[in-house]
Amino acid sequence: MIRFDNVSKRYPGGKDALHAVNLHMPAGSMAFLTGHSGAGKSTLLKLIALLERTTRGQLFLDGENLSRAPKRRIPMVRRKIGMIFQNHRLLFDRTVFDNVALPLVIAGHRHQEIGRRVRAALDKVGLLGHERAFPITLSGGEQQRVGIARAVVNKPKLLLADEPTGNLDPDLSRDIMHLFEQFNQVGVTVLIASHDLDLISRMPYERLHLEHGQLLNSGEVAMA
Ligand SMILES: Nc1ncnc2c1ncn2[C@@H]1O[C@H](COP(=O)(O)OP(=O)(O)OP(=O)(O)O)[C@@H](O)[C@H]1O
């Protein structure tokens, strides 16, 4: 699903944020991405989502060479990916329904289809019945679940999460990780950047560890 061949990323005026990274995640696998602040975790996820472009090396998603992908391919590539952020980036002046529906509206789905898919996504994250609520009225854990529902509403093959439990207490963090496991169990490939070593160490998934832009282990992820 994801392959990095000697990928480096240098931001303008900086040093390499990622240096010669080799990585392979087969379809349906799940892994954690760890490393100190500034190690390059977010950069690695952004390269996959084409939010940033590689400087050197080749990056493949689902067999497609993203390093060569023209700009017009970006929307199609992003449709394969659900992204989840620490601060969930919800629109606070829109209802839960509208937040989750956004990727479907952008993709031009029909009204009825949107309603059906939004309710299915909210059901998966345990928030059915909250469609009309505004995010501000929800707890931090519930807001993160809305972010996850929005990420999965398009049925992506790949979920990328950047510190998804950063603001949550241990119980809620465990629940969120369990949700990711459930998506993985139905075939979605999942890559989660996280600082929460305590939680990660209790889960049976491989850890890809970055230090100063370099991957310290082999980068070959096996199926759990
Ligand atoms: N847009 C940018 N322009 C210039 N430098 C950047 C940019 N984004 C990140 N960097 C630099 O690239 C390096 C890697 O940053 P990145 O955000 O990927 O690390 P991280 O491991 O996700 O850190 P954190 O855990 O703090 O989020 C850092 O040195 C950072 O300062």
TrEMBL record:
All copies of domain ABC transporter, residue ranges: 2-224
Q: Name one Pfam family in it.
A: ABC_tran
Q: How does it sit in the membrane?
A: Peripheral membrane protein
PROSITE patterns on file: ABC_TRANSPORTER_1 (PS00211), ABC_TRANSPORTER_2 (PS50893)
Q: Which processes are annotated in GO (biological process)? A: cell division
Where does this protein reside within or beyond the cell? Cell inner membrane; Cell membrane
- GO cellular component terms listed in the entry, alphabetical order: plasma membrane
- Chief location of this protein within or outside the cell: membrane
Q: Which UniProt keywords apply?
A: ATP-binding, Cell cycle, Cell division, Cell membrane, Membrane, Nucleotide-binding
This protein's record includes keyword rRNA processing = no
Return the InterPro entries for the record.
AAA+_ATPase, ABC_transporter-like_ATP-bd, ABC_transporter-like_CS, ABC_transpr_LolD-like, Cell_div_FtsE, P-loop_NTPase
Please tell me whether the keyword Cytoplasm is annotated for this protein. no
Gene Ontology terms for molecular function? ATP binding; ATP hydrolysis activity; transmembrane transporter activity
Q: Which Gene3D superfamilies match?
A: P-loop containing nucleotide triphosphate hydrolases (3.40.50.300)
UniProt function note? Part of the ABC transporter FtsEX involved in cellular division. Important for assembly or stability of the septal ring.
The record's family statement is: Belongs to the ABC transporter superfamily.
Subunit record text:
Homodimer. Forms a membrane-associated complex with FtsX.
PANTHER family in UniProt: CELL DIVISION ATP-BINDING PROTEIN FTSE, IMPORT ATP-BINDING PROTEIN
Q: This protein is called what?
A: Cell division ATP-binding protein FtsE
